[in-house]
Amino acid sequence: MLLFVGWLIVSVALLGGFMFSGGNPGTLFVTGEYIIIIGIFLGYIVASSSGAVLKMMLKSILTALKGSPYSQKRYVELVSAIYEILVLAREKGVIGLEEHILQPKTSTILGKYPSFLNDHHAVHFLQDTFRPLLDGKVKPEELSRSVENQLDNFFAVHSQPTAVLTKASDALPAIGIVAAVLGIVITMASIAGDKAVIGEHVAHALVGTFLGLLLSYGFAQPLINRIETIHEEEISYLAVIGRMVISYALGAPPMMAAEAGRLTIPVHHQPTCDDMEALLKKTNG
Question: What is the CA radius of gyration of the chain?
Fold first, then answer.
């Protein structure tokens, strides 16, 4: 929502200032310039990406347009879900977790937390984090390095779409110059014509330079920044899982593991220690 508000402010300031100075907003809408700039921009993105990156990019853009799904409630539900899993592990051992970890869709515990269960990245991360403990193949001390490697790999893979978008956005001013040059070519072809027509062609050409700069700094960059912010929140969301499981594997009781997870939550979403503890005690009956 705030992304659209920001774009609206940019548009109102632009058109309002232009009209206040005596400009006609109709002169800024030159169809040919838009086709050239947006077409080259999209072509740049497609040529720079693989199918998987394009798919992730589209999903990231749609998420950014809808707004971040990572609220305090969602983080709290995550801590509560993992806490219940750890309480069960303390009572029955890690073997008692197999039905919940390996078959999460039928888990009576995870089924209470649809915001977590419907996040396939988080579910897979939980499975990958717990599986070494279930198999007994990894010592608790080694689990921390494994989790860090998983997070680093996730960050690297899911940063590829924003890397492509950033480079494409940085190229927009130059693409605008390309459109402007083509406009000048049209102008020169009619140099012997009426002065008013020549002036109109020059104005159309300048719109190309203007549009490239506007799309880059006024629209694309805010979108990219929003995608990166949501991506960082997703990494934090996964890190909560990793921190809680690692703490438990090192011998911490479930409540202490939950506290470690709470401290991993971004500060602006982080509940107080007392509120978190009261909620978890209520959850555990």
Answer: 26
Pick the range with the lowest mean pLDDT from 107-116, 151-160, 183-192. Answer: 183-192
Structure tokens at 101: 């970890």
- What local confidence, expressed as pLDDT, does residue 199 receive? 75
List alpha helices for 190-252, DSSP H: 195-214, 221-249
SS3 (DSSP) at 67: coil
Distances (CA, A) of 165 to 151, 226, 240: 22, 12, 28
Give the sign of the dihedral formed by CA 89, CA 90, CA 93, CA 96: negative
What does the pLDDT average to over 278-285? 77
Distance (Å, whole) CA 209 – CA 58: 27
Stretch 216-238: mean pLDDT, rounded? 94
pLDDT above 70 covers a percentage of the chain that reads 97
Task: Report which residue type is found at 84.
Answer: E
CA distance 222 to 3: 7
d(CA 260, CA 79): 10
Instruction: Tell me the residue type at 41.
Output: F
Among the listed residues 115, 107, 34, 69, the one whose alpha carbon sits nearest the alpha carbon of residue 234: 69
Residue 72: its pLDDT value, please?
A: 92
In whole angstroms, what is the distance from residue 88 CA to residue 248 CA? Answer: 12
> Where are the chain's structural domains?
48-285
